[in-house]
Recover the amino acids of this structure.
């Protein structure tokens, strides 16, 4: 497997040395800046359509056929809207926050491989980089909430900080299990590790007991980190208006949305890479077109993850802030720590079929116990009587 | 603006409460209603409801116009349930004037009122789930059913929400056979919708965790504060005016009154679901037994309608609680000397602070949603 640079260097043999390097830098940047925002734009459309279907309505269908020009119209509308800055706001910070909200989300795509060898930057510490960058996004949320000088913004910003910092922990621990199994922090190596032993689809981490638990933990953490329903409490509309972006309008608001959606898409991409086999799938070894098939599998899986997010958003109420924190520290954290121990067990058990059964039993038992403990005293079944 | 947070003294962290004005422009205050909340972090330590942004002089207006002319104004009180509002006023006037209502009219009144009840309860649950952050899905499911009922009301009265349908001594227009068939169709399909609704909501972990033991209204407080309707019954108060007064022909129907134990948001949610099921039972019986005959008392002359001096109070079980009108007629008797409305939304709202204290900001909006207010009725 070759990386982009090696591929391009092969084509430009004999040319000045900086040329292939410059191209190898420019192409991924253009790809990230061009393709992922387009995916964002159409994610918003698909989201509105899918939510519409969930809710017995059509969704946007006025702008272009099936509403396919709706994202353009939305963008134009937001661009031409008045940019309101509250009089008492900290103007510089207020301006800076939406910009900073986008940057970490874009940077996250640098380590997401979309085909064999085709990763913008093949960092040997890829997963570590992803967590370092994604945590930085909370800075923008707090800056926005603080600078707006609005109590609802402040409440939203405080909720955002508490939530993102808490969910970071189980998420990282879920990733540690994958790193232990793959033996590498590089995203390309993690994908390759999922074909180990000649297994095709059965080798994906999500089909191992510990991998499935890790997948669920990571997906929940990713949902919470990108503030999606049912964890959208930093911008809970019915409680604190719009949270940290209450005082943002026009394109600054659009930038917040862009950052949030890009982070959600990037997190979905990392989830696919770590648990769902990344670009792996039937037909990726066919000469010439194998790379395209691999990219197709990757984007298909990415789309499924995004649709899962939308589906959950359409059907679940929001949790309360203390329940959210309790869930992170009392349920997800013990589960993710146990998961790490189970991966170690898996690694040292020779017979993988036996290991599958044993680890599944351990994790299943732990889940049942945790669910019992966390539900005790909170939820009761009720019966109702009737007056005579 | 944000109060200055005092410098941290050595040894302990000292914080201050902040005062947040929730409303009158807020996504989940159900209109122009304001709550002055004092927050300690996320916890509510003080809450003052502020009303009156939608005051429209309803009572004074009614004292300056004929008895008949007030009926369309009652539509605008609780604009979700104009049928029961009409009935409450008509019942008071009929009591005062001693008018006998024909059988068929009584049955039609029961049918439209119970349809109003299931419409109101399903939408209230939808709105409450909207406040819980369920992104409109339960609300739009409820609105789908509401549309069918509103279509019937439109063909019956000419208007979907402001029906202006009842008259002293009966109803304005008769219910044709086609409309009865339409109503039967709605009633036959509604239990399926309820099952679907419950499947989506009643066992949802997040809903249970959010609603149970939140906003508890003790039985004693509910009685002392004169709470009525589903809210009182969720706190275990056995008080349903359909059973207590047996006004109209309610004495003839077989239905039960569900009662809650705890009196929290979940009980208020589930009591409404159970009440809808009971309403379906009433509707089935009323549609089956609907007699032929006059739909309005022929001896009542609405032109130059006069009432001899006296006073009277008539009340109905509106979907939100006890809706009553106290009317005084004096010499002349062309218009009320005194016209007083007892709005259930307003009186149920008075216990809001007791229910909210100690809970989080997020709970305040669902407690408000479970009280079920319409600002048209709160402020009048």
């Amino acid at each position: 497997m070759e990386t982009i640079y090696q591929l391009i260097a092969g084509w430009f043999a004999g040319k000045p040395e900086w040329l292939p390097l410059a191209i190898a830098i420019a192409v991924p940047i253009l790809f990230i800046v061009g393709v992922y925002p387009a995916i964002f734009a159409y994610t918003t459309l698909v989201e509105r359509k899918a939510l519409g279907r969930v809710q017995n309505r059509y969704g946007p269908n006025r702008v272009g056929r099936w509403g396919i020009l709706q994202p353009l119209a939305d963008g134009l509308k937001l661009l031409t809207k008045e940019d309101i800055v509250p009089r008492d706001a900290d103007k510089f910070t207020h301006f800076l926050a939406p910009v900073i909200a986008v940057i970490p989300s874009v940077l996250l795509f640098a380590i997401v491989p979309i085909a064999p060898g085709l990763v913008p930057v093949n960092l040997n510490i890829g997963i570590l980089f992803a967590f370092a960058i994604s945590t930085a996004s909370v800075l923008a949320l707090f800056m926005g909430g603080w600078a707006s000088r609005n109590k609802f913004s402040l409440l939203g910003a405080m909720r955002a900080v508490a939530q993102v910092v808490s969910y970071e922990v189980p998420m990282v621990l879920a990733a540690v299990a994958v790193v232990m199994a793959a033996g590498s922090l590089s995203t390309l190596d993690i994908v390759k590790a999922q074909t180990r032993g000649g297994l095709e689809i059965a080798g994906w981490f999500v089909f191992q007991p510990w991998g499935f638990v890790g997948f669920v933990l990571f997906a929940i953490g990713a949902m919470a980190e990108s503030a999606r329903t049912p964890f959208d409490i930093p911008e809970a509309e019915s409680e604190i208006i719009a949270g940290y972006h209450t005082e943002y309008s026009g394109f600054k608001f659009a930038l917040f949305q862009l950052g949030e959606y890009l982070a959600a898409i990037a997190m979905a991409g990392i989830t696919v890479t770590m648990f769902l086999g990344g670009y792996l799938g039937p037909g990726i070894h066919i000469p010439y077109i194998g790379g395209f098939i691999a990219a197709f599998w990757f984007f298909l899986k990415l789309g499924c993850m995004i649709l899962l997010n939308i589906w959950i958003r359409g059907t679940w109420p929001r949790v309360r802030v203390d329940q959210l924190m309790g869930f992170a520290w009392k349920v997800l954290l013990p589960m993710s720590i146990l998961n790490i121990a189970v991966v170690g067990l898996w690694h040292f058990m020779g017979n993988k079929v036996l290991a599958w059964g044993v680890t599944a039993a351990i994790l299943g038992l732990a889940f049942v116990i945790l669910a019992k403990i966390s539900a005790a005293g909170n939820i009761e079944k009720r019966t109702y009587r009737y007056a005579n | 603006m944000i109060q200055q947070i005092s410098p941290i003294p050595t040894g302990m962290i000292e914080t201050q409460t902040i005062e947040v004005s929730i409303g009158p422009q807020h996504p989940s205050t159900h209109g122009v209603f304001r709550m002055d909340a004092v927050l300690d972090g996320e916890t509510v330590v003080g809450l003052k409801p502020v009303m009156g942004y939608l005051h429209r002089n309803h009572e004074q207006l009614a004292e300056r116009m004929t008895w008949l002319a007030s009926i369309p104004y009652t539509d605008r009180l609780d604009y979700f349930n104009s049928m029961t509002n009409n009935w409450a006023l008509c019942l008071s006037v009929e009591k005062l004037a001693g008018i006998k209502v024909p059988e068929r009219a009584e049955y039609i009144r029961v049918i439209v009122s119970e349809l109003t009840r299931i419409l109101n309860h399903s939408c209230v649950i939808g709105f409450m789930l909207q406040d819980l952050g369920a992104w409109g899905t339960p609300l739009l499911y409820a609105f789908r059913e509401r549309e069918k009922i509103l279509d019937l009301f439109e063909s019956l009265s000419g208007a979907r929400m402001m029906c202006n349908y009842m008259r002293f001594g009966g109803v304005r227009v008769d219910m044709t056979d086609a409309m009865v068939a339409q109503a039967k169709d709605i009633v036959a399909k509604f239990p399926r919708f309820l099952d679907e609704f419950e499947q989506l909501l009643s066992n949802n972990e997040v809903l249970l965790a959010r609603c149970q033991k939140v906003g508890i209204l003790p039985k004693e407080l509910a009685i002392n504060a004169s709470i009525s309707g589903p809210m009182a019954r969720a706190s275990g108060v056995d008080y349903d005016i359909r059973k207590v007064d047996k006004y109209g022909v309610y004495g003839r129907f077989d239905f039960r009154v569900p009662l809650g134990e705890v009196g929290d948001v979940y009980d208020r949610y589930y009591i409404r679901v159970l009440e809808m099921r009971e309403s379906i039972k009433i509707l089935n019986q009323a549609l089956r037994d609907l007699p032929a005959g006059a739909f309005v008392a022929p001896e009542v002359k609405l032109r130059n309608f006069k009432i001899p001096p006296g006073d009277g109070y008539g009340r109905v079980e509106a979907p939100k609680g006890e809706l009553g009108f106290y009317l005084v007629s004096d010499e002349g008797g062309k218009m009320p000397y005194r016209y007083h409305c007892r709005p259930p939304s307003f009186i149920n709202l008075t216990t809001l602070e007791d229910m909210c204290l100690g809970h989080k900001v997020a709970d305040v909006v669902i407690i408000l949603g479970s009280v079920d207010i319409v600002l048209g009725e709160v402020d009048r």
